[in-house]
Amino acid sequence: MSTDIPLPEELVAHARAFYASGAVPVPPRRAATVVLLRHPFEAYVIRRVATMAFAAGMYAFPGGVVDPRDESAPAAWAGPSTVDWANRLGLDESGARAVVCAAVREVFEECGVLLAGPDPSTVVGDVSGASWEADRLALIAREVGFADLLAARGLVLRGDLLTAWSRWITPEFEPRRFDTYFFLARLPESQLTRDVGGEAEHALWAPPADLLHLPMLPPTRVTLRAVSGFPSIEAALGAERDAATPVALRFPGFGSAQPKRPVM
What we know:
Elements: E1 2-4, H1 9-21, E2 29-38, E3 42-48, E4 59-60, E5 63-65, E6 77-78, H2 82-89, H3 93-111, E7 116-117, H4 130-140, H5 146-153, E8 156-158, E9 162-169, E10 178-186, E11 200-206, H6 218-228, H7 233-237, E12 248-250
Parallel strand pairs: 1-12, 2-10, 6-8
Antiparallel strand pairs: 2-3, 2-5, 3-4, 3-11, 7-8, 9-10
Helix pairs in contact: 2-3
């Protein structure tokens, strides 16, 4: 997939200077993000606080970088095997397991939604109580690993509730770079998103197309536009997608600074 992304003039100048200098791109950090959906076909976005070093003030989906402890396999795992996820994401098994765990963990950390259940066919109910909040804060503080939390609660990670959607890598000329896997997931009927603070200063549910006027980075906008083209949540979740190949970006107006190799 190739996508044309118009760049603001200041970013064009930054990119042109980067390639003219011969600078070496910063290695991207692996990350995961989840587009939560709910009936009657609304998507959930959060506005990142103005003090964030990356995408400050922008609307985004819940997500973040993979923690090394995300590679630890939960004792109970429902849905596709790590081999299947590795094929879907274009990673080895360890990397695929870490990305899937990071996706589920980040949704719990950032909006209080937990894609896990007491068995492979159910989802845990309300997770807004004091003990759950203590667990969520312990995760954020990295005092406990996600696999350990699930084991202590006797829960199964519901990887089958995730749909792999796409993969985006921050352009080479940016000083902070991420190799991010995008997933879709339906909000469990028994749970609600919560304003838990932290990285978010505002949260919003709305039809995907109605969110496109908000300030957001290109991957968020392109994802919302694509999701809005489906007639239902079920259709979007069932779509065949390539989440292993990074989206190739071309920048109109980039002029002579457009690199010969694909920018992703």
